[in-house]
Amino acid sequence: MSGESEKVLGEIPVIARLALGGERLALFVTETRIIVAHIGKRGTGNLVAPSLLGRLGGGLEDLLKSGKESRDNRALQHSIPEKILAADKDNFDIGYDEIVSARAFETPFARSITLVTRDDKFDFRTNLTLESIAVLLEKNLGAKLTVETL
Known about the structure:
Largest sheet: 8 strands, mixed
CATH architecture: Roll
Strand order of the largest sheet: 4-3-2-1-7-6-5-8
Order of helices and strands: EEEHHEEEEHE
Number of strands: 8
CATH superfamily: Pleckstrin-homology domain (PH domain)/Phosphotyrosine-binding domain (PTB)
Low-confidence stretches: 43-51, 59-77
Structural class: alpha+beta
Shape: globular
Number of domains: 1
Helix content: 25-40%
CATH topology: PH-domain like
Mean pLDDT: 80
CATH class: Mainly Beta
Strand content: 35-45%
């Protein structure tokens, strides 16, 4: 990562299907990549998620309330993506240049996101609206993103 600030633009809470149940994840959308953060197995994620996200969000809120210089704000914003990655050994990032295609679609029963990279394919389910997903992803993915209602 270069020395420039990297902002977290938003978060998409998702579930990835596993052989037995599902895994709760969060997709943190930044200006340069998507960070996939493990929150927990389905059912236990509610206990883990607030501690990870609360810690990260609390630090940002404290800094903004303290009225520090914008230079300090940029430093904190840059550290948040790195803290998310360091919070769990299984967290990882996907650079936008690695993504071959992305599809966000809605069926009568669910909203889904499929990311295809050079090496992998990721399928996620989310409760976030299709419009919210599109707003977060379309700027950085452009023509690679397809949004549709089935």
